[in-house]
Amino acid sequence: MNYSEQLNKISSHGLRRELRAIQPLPNGYCIYKGQKMVNLSSNDYLGLATDENLKKEFNELLMQNTDWMQFGSSSSRLLTGNTGLYDKTEALIKNWYGAESALFFNSGYHANTGILAALSDKGDLILSDKLCHASIIDGIRLSNADHIRYKHSDVNHIESILEKKRTNYNRVFIVSESIFSMDGDEADLRKLVELKQKYDAILYVDEAHAVGAVGNNGLGLCEVQNVVHDIDILVGTMGKAMASVGAYAVFGEQLRQMLINKARTLIFTTALPNINMAWTAFVIEKMPYFVEQRQKLAQLSKSAKQNINIENSFQGFIIPHIVGENEVAVKLSEHLQKQGFLVFPIRPPTVPQGTARLRISLTANIKKSSLNDFFKILKQ
Ligand SMILES: Cc1ncc(COP(=O)(O)O)c(C=O)c1O
Predict the structure, then answer these.
(1) Which domain holds residue 21?
(2) Beta strands at 29-32 and 22-25: parallel, antiparallel or unpaired
(3) What is the pLDDT of residues 98-110, one digit of tens each?
(4) Domain match, 346 and 238 both
């Protein structure tokens, strides 16, 4: 099939994607196609990315630290790209988690693809949740290990695989997200810890959607479930509640050394510039103290659940409204946009076939009244 046939096919299935220009505004709003809307599609869960006071505070520091004003790093971390701000950021992350070691990557995509491919080998087995993010899947594709996807959050399925296969392999990795990106539901991390202990496996948890947003200190779902120190490889990303860009892994020093030597997405890419690393360090330092924002997010999530009669124990700031058909999701999102609410259709392959949906994501700076109005319209 040539490219125009391929593009026509994508369009005919209601799957054509496009880039849109959106201007984020403070207080949970944005401008899209010239219209001011309530932004229900952002992962800025704590509202920090558009917080004017925070930006002002950072700008004042920037004036005193002119070496931060570097917008290109000019080489890989292994050459001259590794400025002192990387050391500072990794030290802050280590202290925040009380961990032995931390390593910073350019993005969550770089972290997941780089780590999984570098730490696994022929003779190893990777077990991953069926709903794991594309970056995890791609990391596994780059690995030489065998791979089995287990049924979503099904610990019995994991155990049955381990019972049958553990002894055939050198290392076994269990890989899961903590709060799942497209469904907002949560892994039972305690159960995963039990399994990894029982079967001598390595537990890898991607906390992309949980870090910053939940936990008394903002350490994510592992803090909520009290397993911070039981996870072998914990990945957190900066692009969501943490209002920056980049990602980190927290683990033992030996794994850090392995990755500095073997992770291709760390070695063969230009480091992030000082301006970004300075902002990242600034935000991480404050993370334990954004308690009010986390409480506000929790209250909004509770109110959203009441609005749509959902009863579960999940945090609830990612709400999937599953409609099934791709075209229905597109039409519904267009209708909601006309009413002043920015929600986008999420379609395969991002989610499984037949489960197209609106992904409603809440941020701490949205007004409760706006949320109530939104659910009224959605119900209609
Ligand atoms: C679960 C999960 N992991 C990793 C990533 C990738 O992180 P980043 O955007 O920093 O590349 C995302 C989304 O972006 C995600 O949802």
Answers:
(1) 11-48+290-379
(2) antiparallel
(3) 999 999 999 999 9
(4) no
